[in-house]
Amino acid sequence: MDGTTDIRIADRAVIEQLLPMHLHLAADGTVIGIGPTLRKMIGAATGPVEALFRDARPGVTEELSATIRRAAGQGERLFLRMIDPPMLSLRGHAVETADGSLLVDLGFGIALIDAVNAAGLTDSDFAPPELAMELLFLYEANRAVLGELSSFNHQLEEARRAAEVKAHTDPLTGLSNRRGLDIALSLAFHAAFDPQNADDRKAFALVHLDLDKFKQVNDTLGHEAGDRVLCDVGCVLRETTRSHDVAARIGGDEFVLILPGLQSAPTLEKLSRRIIDGIEAVRVTADGGSAVSASIGIVLSDGYRGLTPEQMLRDADTALYRSKNAGRRRATILQKPLV
Amino acid sequence: MHRLIDRAIEEFLRDTYGDALLGAVQQMMGRAADLPAEEGLHDNSRIHVAARRLAKPADELFEDLGAWLARQEAIRRLLRFSGREFAEFVIRLDELPGRAHMILPDICMPAITVTECSLGDLRVILPERETGWTALLAGMLRVMADDYGALGLISVEGSQIGVLIPDAEFAQGRDFQLGAAFAARGRGV
């Protein structure tokens, strides 16, 4: 053994420890050394480097050993892809040693997570200065936290929906409140007159209802009895309307219904009758005494093109007062807007 | 209070003492869910309320919480990244606030100093008023000693934790494979 060989053997041990991911190539590109971590993935093969790796960049036709030699000379980066499974892409750089051999040091980059899985790597497979363990730590931590956050988001979304419903609901009757009505009416108005959607217009009827003699119930029997009556009226309205109709209580004893698709006066008259009958059947006192009734005003959306939901509400209110003035317990239907 | 911590405490109370206690605690706290998010762990009222309800010292509950946290697979794994063996884990506890901060930027974990009095006799030191965090860490250390298979004797004095490691390979530790979490779904907090 001559002196040069001794030094090279000593070097190899140092390099093995220091660079667990290195590839050592003879001047002709033959593999003469592989670092211990890299060996876990590609084995202890010898032979031309082209049997183990190819250039990971597309369209490179040059022989790999020539690419490596040029990269060593010019300080360029190398991107190598394993030819056999796990077929990971590695990146690295190369230096030419004094004896003309090439020392390539490789690393994982973002492929680290795949590599850990594919090759069953452990803490001791990484050189201590490498940030591999920190990257894996962050990757796991990130996934755990994101998982938790997405369940938070889910909870928040549910809470938001519940709050929204609550904000638009009259707590006493469970019908919509004034805000809920405003939103529903502007949606109905939009659906009826949307120029984008001329083929599928949805006419609707707007019903304004006011209880007759409700104030007397409140005054003589107290607010509790009054509240009970309002609840029962809410039930009547829910039972006499369809699921896609909107029923709202917009104040004391005032109710509004939005009835999509209804424009026929006879149908609306029949419906009004059912509602008034239902409300008159509401028991106010324990002995079954009945005192309340209702007056109704109805307007039809046809004819309100270019006008506003507010005008519709105003007209429905006027119709309601015509019913009141005509002796209550009845409905008035306006065929067209009041000007 | 960071919401993740808040939720961990909630899960811990539910897991250990059941829904009834958690419900009682929530009730005693009134609008518990609306507490400001900035409180640190040292004035965490939920643990204190639960401790009062259970007639236990709060620090004991913090210690149980630490132990419970270290038993959650996702957290256990994250902790195991800190060292190959138990002694290294303890020595590198000074990195823990940094690691926690890296994951949850708004967590306010106090600084941790670790000194070695003699071989296998370590001292973990927290700021004086942080007895809650100290207790929590002590509970965590007890579980992690078992996790590494080490015999570790943990003692708490004020805001200091003594860690004696008479035998680093006392028993078979629990498995820690780097890739395991990516296949298995850990129970997260």
From TrEMBL, chain A:
Transmembrane segments: none annotated. Residues 202-336 form the GGDEF domain. It holds the Pfam family GGDEF. It comes from the Bacteria. One of its GO terms (molecular function) is diguanylate cyclase activity. Its EC number is 2.7.7.65. GO terms for biological process: cell adhesion involved in single-species biofilm formation; negative regulation of bacterial-type flagellum-dependent cell motility. One of its GO terms (cellular component) is plasma membrane. It is an enzyme of class 2 (transferase). This is diguanylate cyclase. It comes from Paracoccus caeni.
From TrEMBL, chain B:
One of its GO terms (molecular function) is heme binding. InterPro entries: H-NOX_domain_sf (IPR038158), NO_sig/Golgi_transp_ligand-bd (IPR024096). SUPFAM superfamilies: Ligand-binding domain in the NO signalling and Golgi transport (SSF111126). This is Heme NO-binding protein. It comes from Paracoccus caeni. The lineage of its organism: Bacteria, Pseudomonadati, Pseudomonadota, Alphaproteobacteria, Rhodobacterales.
